[in-house]
Amino acid sequence: MIDVIVIGAGPAGLAGAITCASSGLKVMVIDEFIKPGGRLIGQLHQELSGEWWNGIKESERLHQEALKQSVDIRSGVSVYNLEKDDDLWNVHTSIGTLTAPFVLAATGAAEYPIPLPGWTLPGVMSIGAAQVMTNVHRVQVGKKGIIIGANILAFAILNELQLAGIHVNRIVLPEKSPLSGKAGEPEEVMKSLLNAAHLAPSPLLRMGSRFMKNDWFRKTGMRFFPKSGVKVNGTPLLLRKAALEVIGTEQVEGVRVADTDANGNIIPGTETVYEADFVCIAGGLYPLAELAAVSGCPFQYIPELGGHVPHHSETMETPLEGLFVAGNITGIESGKIAMAQGTIAGYSIAKHAGKGGTAIVEQLNQSVKNVHLLRKQAAIQFYPDIESGRRKMYDLWEQLYANPARLHTEEKLG
Amino acid sequence: MKKMTRLLDHPILGKLDDRKAIPFTFDGKTYEALENETIAAALLANGIRTLRIHEESGTPRGFYCNIGHCMECRVTVNDQANVRACLTVVEQCMVIASGKQHPNIVKRMVEQQ
């Protein structure tokens, strides 16, 4: 008999599993990747203090701690459905149907694709794919690459590729279109990078923020952005070049680009081809929430959180009895926040299960406070308005679920 | 394509542990993977990026997301179709086949009209 099934062995899922198990619950964690850690295992960057954040070491620490608490971790197991049957959740997986009264959905995030002609050619990959191939599998993705899309994730992974000796030749923007949205508008991209530069004195962004902090540059904005780009850790960032097409027959041979005006509109007659043998598409992250959706959980679109998120409280409950969430499924933030949210979910589940005695309420409160503290200390944010996005979700929760009597009256009135 | 180098030494992550070489076949040819390596990583290290051709158009496809979301890397493993190369670890003497183009009889009929 299992008490809690955790879906996802990333920072949120493992932290949640550890907390549940240390409160006396029997926990099983399932994950479809070949080993535990989730996307934490790809992460590698230098902290403000100069220390390295080594995701592999962090996940190993969580993994060992989980094993010490007798958490049963199953890697290589996929979940394809989630439904409730009376008091128990049925988790339909590639190793059969598992049942438990509590489920923690910690499925993380996925990358927004930016489709462009030729993007199906072998050698075109999401920026996260390059990260995993480099830091986890340790196989070179190519000899000379181009990144399409300029955002925090792209810069973080550019740095990781360079550390591993992988040569990235240029960063260009996607062509402005309904699919690329703001990622194809140089001024919008500039604004978001300035935002990051302001927030982040970390070595990771310092490399790119030197020029962004220049007042003259801020004032003149995109109009005088040099055609040859501005170097980010040695790689030219070309905000006024847009990728029109990935070219090649059997695999990537290059990217056809054109100059753009400050608004991202193509300037006719400026097309040129940059040679490359791999291309990374960096469209940013969104909460991966299909399993919460098939379970019947209501959703809200909150762009400040990165997309559609399942309704949830600050203590990680969903409106569905026994279903909890943690990590990037609730909004895009760092692995540290995901871990801290996993701890909240763990205490929350323990409290619902009647475990942890009188201390549990205080532990739960403290874990919520800890997330606030970590968020304030965060050097970079993938989505700069994350605080207001979080507030929107919790306000919505108060309105819809915290005071059901009032809701009932409103429904009657309505 | 030229073979891609394995990143044996990394300034922060350190040296790769010595791992056993494991033989497997892809479309009838024998290659070597390292122990606990995914099919996608092992093939890339052997210089192979094309994992399938599109069932309808016949155009080449490789891995895209590398973490199981996009389904672009599906191959046939020991006669089991639609296995994700990015999530499946190579095992001793595994028989892997790339995805092939399927006949589209209806489309051909429409084209002939």
Summarize the structure in words:
- The complex is a heterodimer of chains A (414) and B (113).
- Chain A has 414 residues and is of the alpha/beta class.
- Chain A has two domains: 235 residues, FAD/NAD(P)-binding domain (3-Layer(bba) Sandwich), CATH 3.50.50.60; 171 residues, FAD/NAD(P)-binding domain, CATH 3.50.50.60.
- Chain A is 36% helix and 25% strand.
- Chain A contains twelve helices and 22 strands.
- The C terminus of chain A is likely disordered.
- Chain B is elongated.
- Chain B has a single domain, classed as Ubiquitin-like (UB roll), CATH 3.10.20.
- Chain B has 113 residues and is of the alpha+beta class.
- Chain B is built from two helices and nine strands.
- The longest helix of chain B has 8 residues.
- At the A-B interface, β11 and α3 of A face α1 and β6 of B.
Task: Walk me through the topology.
The complex is a heterodimer of chains A (414) and B (113).
Chain A: E1 4-7, H1 11-22, E2 27-31, E3 44-46, E4 52-54, H2 55-68, E5 72-75, E6 79-85, E7 88-93, E8 96-100, E9 102-105, E10 109-111, E11 124-126, H3 127-136, E12 145-148, H4 152-163, E13 168-174, H5 186-199, H6 203-212, H7 215-220, E14 230-232, E15 235-247, E16 254-259, E17 272-275, E18 278-281, E19 285-287, H8 290-294, E20 299-302, E21 307-310, E22 323-325, H9 335-352, H10 359-377, H11 386-402, H12 404-413
Helix pairs in contact in A: 1-2, 1-9, 3-4, 5-6, 9-10
Chain B: E1 9-10, E2 14-15, E3 21-26, E4 29-34, H1 39-45, E5 52-53, E6 60-61, E7 74-77, E8 80-84, E9 95-97, H2 105-112
Parallel strand pairs in B: 3-9
Antiparallel strand pairs in B: 1-2, 3-4, 5-6, 7-8, 7-9
InterPro entries (chain A): FAD/NAD-bd_sf, FAD/NAD-binding_dom, Metab_Enz_Cyan_OpOx_G3PDH, MnmG_N
Organism (chain A): Cytobacillus solani
Domain FAD/NAD(P)-binding (chain A): 3-154
